[in-house]
Amino acid sequence: MNKQEEEIRKKSPVNIKNKKAAFEYFFIETFTAGIVLTGTEIKSIRAGKASLVDSYCYIVNEEMWVRGMSVSPYFYGSYNNHEMKRDRKLLLTKREIRRLQSATKQTGYTIVPLLVFIDPNGRAKMDIALCKGKKAFDKRQTLKEKEDRREMDRAIKHY
């Protein structure tokens, strides 16, 4: 990810993160995908009413899907409001999908959504990552590093 792409994510009015992913997985490679949404879904996402907790991606018939992503029903929606938890299609190139598919055939690898944001054109995008699961000792190491960073920040603020 280059600086320009990072700026777009920071300027986005919506940043829905999967905070648990960094604790549970090592990120090997990241991709940005478009999301196929209905009218009320995009309105809910723009309002920040979505969650990536316990969501994951899978591939069927050379198409990438996200399962477990929760988008709350739109408050002003009528009888044709969307379903809260449904599988949503992700838009990637065939080359990227084939690459991810061959990587996930290896044991221990999975595809996890990291972030949902709105690009400058008003479209919802999702950052996904090819991940390898962490073992228990890796998670302890992550917690220790996080705690050390907090201690250092506290020490700097006291001076």
Structural class label: alpha+beta
Strand line-up in the sheet with most strands: 1-8-9-2-7-5-4
Order of helices and strands: HEHEHEEEEEHEEH
Number of helices: 5
Radius of gyration: 18 Å
Spans with pLDDT under 50 lasting ≥5 residues? none
Protein described:
The protein has 159 residues and is α+β, with helices and mostly antiparallel strands. The protein has 5 helices and 9 strands. It has a 7-stranded antiparallel sheet. Strands 3-6 form a two-stranded antiparallel ribbon. 24% of the residues are buried. The mean pLDDT is 87.
Output the keywords.
about 160 residues, alpha+beta, 7-stranded antiparallel sheet, two-stranded antiparallel sheet, 5 helices, 9 strands, about 35% helix, globular
Helix and strand arrangement:
Elements: H1 3-11, E1 15-17, H2 19-24, E2 25-35, H3 39-46, E3 50-51, E4 56-60, E5 63-67, E6 70-71, E7 88-91, H4 94-104, E8 109-118, E9 124-133, H5 136-158
Antiparallel strand pairs: 1-8, 2-7, 2-9, 3-6, 4-5, 5-7, 8-9
The gist of it:
This protein has helices spanning 3-11, 19-24, 39-46, 94-104, 136-158; strands at 15-17, 25-35, 50-51, 56-60, 63-67, 70-71, 88-91, 109-118, 124-133. It has 159 residues and is α+β, with helices and mostly antiparallel strands. A hairpin with a 5-residue loop joins β8 (109-118) and β9.
